[in-house]
Task: structure prediction
Amino acid sequence: MLSHTITHILCALGGVATVQATQLFSNTGTMSGWDAYTHENKGTVQEVTNVMYKGSTALKMTQVYDSTWTGRYHSEAVKYNVYKKGDTGFYGFAFRLQQDWQFSPASSYNLAQFIADFTDLGCEETYMPSTLVWIEGDQLATRVKYGEVCPTDSQLTRSFKNLKTVTAGDWHRIELQVNWQSDNTGYFKMWYDGEKVTETYNIPTNVGDGRPFQFRVGLYANGWHDSGYVGTQPTRQVWYDQIAAGSVFADANPDAW
Result:
């Protein structure tokens, strides 16, 4: 579990505070070290050595539209127990859309999410995501979720949209810093390619239930399931590299480790 305690060492003579970094999880674009994978229907999660952000490997996530399939379209790598309510943490990854990615007509494609299993509550929603990072057309977006899990109409979201224009065929970096709270003491920040694109304080950032959430990176073609397939590109691919979570920005910054 990501601790929200960051060690400060006060030097007796100099009075200088030093922050001790704690990298909770890191992955250099490999299939090892994850707790699970999702690859529904024709979707795949693969380790590749021909397209990388850094080092010698990356993860390639593929989803394929299928008119006979009525389920969802996840292709993700999953890490359990990355945060719980009350934590503060940094989370980051590098991603690359395929070179010929079709942005128009606009559809929603999720790139990363935090999610937890609430099956025991008996709601109509078994797994509920909190924060998402996605693209709508070529526009970057994210959100926080708060309120209560059950009933589902008590779930509330605050979205941050049209943050930046995302390009295809290029590697991009995402970093998040979140103070996960169910009251108005939380905060939320996101960076894209080193530029802070949203920063909001004194907001709820998590539901009331305090159970731990997973961190998932990968392609989830949610627009196909939620709104219907549009366009003429039924196969979508996204590469991921340098995925991490930790207690300081450098822990999550793909360029810093």
User: Anything to note?
Assistant: The helical segments are 222-226, 249-252. The CA atoms of residues 140 and 164 lie 5 Å apart.
